[in-house]
Amino acid sequence: MVQKDSFEGGAFHPGFPKGKSSGTLYVTPSHVKFTGTHGSFDLPVEGVQVEEGGASDRLVFFKHPQHPGCSIYTDDKSVLDHPSFRHHRGMQGQKAAIVKRRWLGRAVVIGVFVAIALAIVGLWAAKGPMVGAIARQVPAAWEEKLGELAFKQITTRARLVEDPALQRQLEALTGPLVAGVKSERYKFKFHIVEDASLNAFALPGGTVAIHSGLLLRAERPEEIAGVLAHEIAHVTRQHSVRRMIETLGLYAILGAFFGDTEGLFAILAENSGALLELKFSRDAERDADEQGWGSMLAGDINPRGMITMFQKLDQEHEELKKKAGALGKLETPGFLSTHPHVKDRITQLEEKWTKLGKKEGYRTFDLNFKEFQNTLRSRLSQQPPAPAKGKK
Ligand SMILES: [Zn+2]
User: Fold this and answer.
1) pLDDT digits (tens, 9 = 90+) for 368-383
2) Alpha-carbon distance 202 to 191, whole Å?
3) Is 391 within 8 Å of 157 (Cβ atoms)?
């Protein structure tokens, strides 16, 4: 292999016009020479210093203490392998330093990328806890307001059964359940909606609505308590608030996290209607079942009611599916449209039931259940005509 002695490059020299010149670098056994358009000069190999420089350290500079202000450079780094430098004192060390710096530079770049990637992964992983932390910072009054806004939208198209006697009977049923709820943050309000579908839903702040269909389908008060316990848990665990915050995206979340809570509320209030179509994740449903189950036990209510009511809901769903199959379409009704995976959840609750030792001695309700249902049935028939559906 023929050793290359000349390299394209340039030089700085106080004698050059504007101090610099492009040209060619030559390596001889004794000198590093420069010949360019504006002049020539040499630097002795003995004592020459090498440095990297220029954008991204693309260039190699030769300097010499005896020639201050002068330097010769090239972007051809193979110049460092020239035999003239082989026995040069210090050159090998300088070369090694350059190589080391180059690797160090790469390591820093890689390190920064890894750190950014980790930060993104970390943020993603922390999203759940962060959403939870923000939700807990939302004042209870806000949640109430949000719930009211959403409920107002419901009452424009649904009809409430408002009867003081019924309400008192319902309280006999819900009272022990609410007593078993650990959180004191919410005041629960229960409304009966005239609707034959088996459904119930809860809004942030503690507004809970129960369809008359569900109340009439239940065979025992514990069955209603079971569904309500689940709904109450959606409130105390702030599932809808969390879900709303999640859908707002990381920017709004970070804003709220660092104090812009007014902005967050404005957005939440604007989207309160979305609360009515919110679907919870499987995890949120499981969580509501768990918490609800706990509230039932804390209120000394037989939690079996939760299981048998879910079975009724599932059974109803299957029947409707069969009918819909014949018609070729299925609109998932009521509770199941907003509460999926009911079969899996029944299985999980059955496991809890099996583990639970106590099977007797649960509370009885201060309520004649059949009479309650009869009163409700009679009130339904007494209702004035329902407002036309579909109009908002
Ligand atoms: Zn649910």
Assistant:
1) 999 999 999 998 866 6
2) 10
3) yes
Ligand 1 centroid–CA 56 distance in Å is 58
Least confident segment among 50-59, 199-208, 362-371:
50-59
Judged by average pLDDT, the poorest of 109-113, 239-243, 322-326, 376-380 is: 322-326
| β-sheet bridge partners, residue 31 | 44
* Cα of 280 from ligand 1 centre, angstroms: 7
pLDDT digits (tens, 9 = 90+) for 319-369: 877 877 766 555 555 566 656 678 889 999 999 999 988 777 899 988 999
| Cα 105 to ligand 1 centre (Å) | 54
Span from the CA of 70 to the centroid of ligand 1 (angstroms): 78
- Whole-number Å distance, alpha carbon 200 to ligand 1 midpoint, is 9
Whole-angstrom Cα distance, residue 47 to residue 91?
A: 9
Going from the Cα of 101 to the center of ligand 1, the distance in angstroms, rounded, reads 59
The CA-based angle 130-207-200, given to 5 degrees, is 100
Are 286 and 348 in contact by the 8 Å Cβ rule? The answer is yes
CA of 71 to the centre of ligand 1 (A): 76
264 Cα: distance to centroid of ligand 1 (angstroms) = 24
Find, among 155, 10, 141, 139, the residue nearest to 73 by Cα. Answer: 10
Residue type present at position 376: L
* pLDDT over 90 (residue 99): no
Quickly count: other Cβ atoms within 10 Å of residue 98's Cβ: 17
Distance CA 382, CA 148 (A): 27
Q: Are 222 and 305 in contact (CB under 8 A)?
A: yes
Determine the distance separating the centroid of ligand 1 and the alpha carbon of 235, expressed in angstroms: 10
CA of 84 to the centre of ligand 1 (A): 81
Q: Kindly give the distance from the C-alpha atom of residue 272 to the centroid of ligand 1, in angstroms, as a whole number.
A: 18
